[in-house]
Design brief:
CATH architecture of one domain: Orthogonal Bundle
Number of helices: 18
Radius of gyration: 22 Å
Helix content: 40-55%
Pfam family, one: p450
Number of strands: 9
Strand content: 5-15%
Distance between the termini: 50 Å
Order of helices and strands: HHHEEHEHHHEHHHHHHHHHEEEEHHE
GO molecular function, one term: heme binding
Largest sheet: 5 strands, mixed
Protein name: Cytochrome P450
Family: Belongs to the cytochrome P450 family.
Keywords: Heme, Iron, Metal-binding, Monooxygenase, Oxidoreductase
Strand order of the largest sheet: 1-2-8-5-3
């Protein structure tokens, strides 16, 4: 039987990335293990893969050497499309300060109640994606983040197309069969215009309320008070951009994460029973590790992409050291890194008691997920409430419908 590397090396150079991408998504763990052992830095025409923990950490923590250049055509002047700029640090700091980290217990209660209401109202049969994995974070955006007078279907649409274009429609994705790259760009542009119109009107309404003394306490209102204070360089245009970022980041990534965690937990009947027992009998925090460990096995993002700005040696000091040249698109294959035995003891074991500090569920380095603390309670609480239902039938699992993320998942349960 030929190895993965033998198959790749035997293929024409122009075909290797398509084959390797198939392995990354269809047979990830054995493929990763072979690369980590034999060729941890694997260069192809379109991308170079880095598969060891040390190299992934280096790539993601050095923004001046490995930059987010490929975000810029998708996200424009948004701070997350910048590396180590004054605007990036200022706006990230502002956004961190206005999110409700101190209110995580209340947010968890909100997610718990909203998930239960969604399942109760469905009366035993539900499309998990629309009504729960997308529906619950959309409700959080509306009720907690302050997106009043909004249509949930439109919020889902805007988040979906922005995420599709930014993360799943890069130049190196051209090898994906049937991917309509221009169509995705047009849908993202349409969604961006409609989202900007809605947020612009929201900001105008809320600005008037704030100036009239409204004490409404949500992220949109906090951003406006900060902008009006003139205490920091943060104008209304910046408010609009960053309010949009709250929506884009909250919905689709949560949905994908919940679906992936559930997919892994339901793939093993014994593991599913163990997780359900904890969901039913333990404290909420006792259950969280099951979701984060499931996402180590089945992450929403198996890699993060960067562009190399200067010739850089990876796997330095080892026989497999390789120099990555300036201009190369590098994929830090963090799914592989989370199974690197140098960083994760007994990596093949499902261990919900792990310390998850070194996992990449929320990224790493300068571009770590802005809302990681909120997501850190929302993701496991949605999964926990689903598993607390009885007579669960997960059917055939999530249906991606040709997309990079789940589009439907029909679940039945005792009403």
């Amino acid at each position: 039987m030929t190895t993965y590397l033998q198959q790749l090396d035997a293929a024409a150079p122009a075909d290797r990335w398509k084959i390797a991408r198939g392995f990354l998504f269809d047979e990830p763990l054995p493929f990763h293990a072979e690369l980590r052992d034999k060729r941890p830095i694997y260069a192809m025409e379109e991308v170079t893969l880095a598969t060891r923990f040390a190299d992934c950490n280096l790539i993601l923590r050095r923004p001046l050497t490995f930059g987010v250049d490929l975000y810029k055509p998708k996200q424009g002047s948004y701070f997350m499309a910048q590396d180590d700029t004054a605007q990036h640090w200022r706006e990230k700091s502002i956004m961190k300060s206005i999110l409700d980290v101190e209110d995580l217990p209340k947010i968890r209660d909100f997610v718990r109640n909203t998930t239960d209401q969604a399942l109760d109202s469905a009366r035993g049969s539900v499309d998990l994606v629309r009504h729960v994995t997308r529906g619950v974070p959309v409700k959080l955006v509306q009720d907690w983040f302050g997106f009043t007078r909004s249509n949930p279907e439109k919020l889902i649409d805007w988040s979906y197309w922005n995420q599709q274009d930014a993360f799943w429609n890069q130049p190196f994705d051209s090898v994906v069969d049937g991917l309509d790259q221009e169509g995705i760009i047009k849908n993202r542009e349409r969604a961006g215009v409609m989202m900007a119109i809605y947020i612009g009107r929201l900001v105008l309404r809320r600005s008037a309320a704030v100036k009239l003394g409204s004490r409404r306490d949500d992220p949109v209102s906090r951003l406006l008070r900060l902008s009006f204070s003139d205490g920091v360089d943060f104008n209304l245009r910046d408010v609009v951009f960053n309010v949009g970022g709250l929506l884009i980041g909250a919905v689709e990534t949560t949905s994908h994460g919940v679906c992936n965690a559930l997919s892994h937990l339901t793939s093993d009947p014994a593991l599913l029973k163990e997780a359900r027992d904890v969901a039913l009998g333990g404290r909420p925090e006792d259950f969280d590790g099951y979701v984060f460990e499931a996402l180590r096995f089945n992450p929403a993002f198996p890699y993060f992409f960067r562009v190399c700005h200067r010739d850089t040696e990876l796997s330095g000091g080892t026989p497999q050291a390789e120099t990555v040249r300036k201009g190369t698109t590098v994929l830090a294959v963090t799914h592989s890194a989370m199974f690197d035995p140098t960083a994760f003891p007994d990596p093949e074991k499902f261990d919900p008691a792990r310390d998850f500090s070194d996992t990449y569920t929320f990224g790493h380095g300068m571009h770590t997920c802005l809302g990681r603390h909120i997501a850190g309670v929302m993701l496991p609480e949605i999964v926990r409430q689903i598993l607390r239902r009885s007579d669960l039938d997960f059917g055939s699992g999530p249906d991606f419908k040709g997309s990079a993320v789940p589009q439907e998942w029909h679940l039945t349960y005792a009403a």
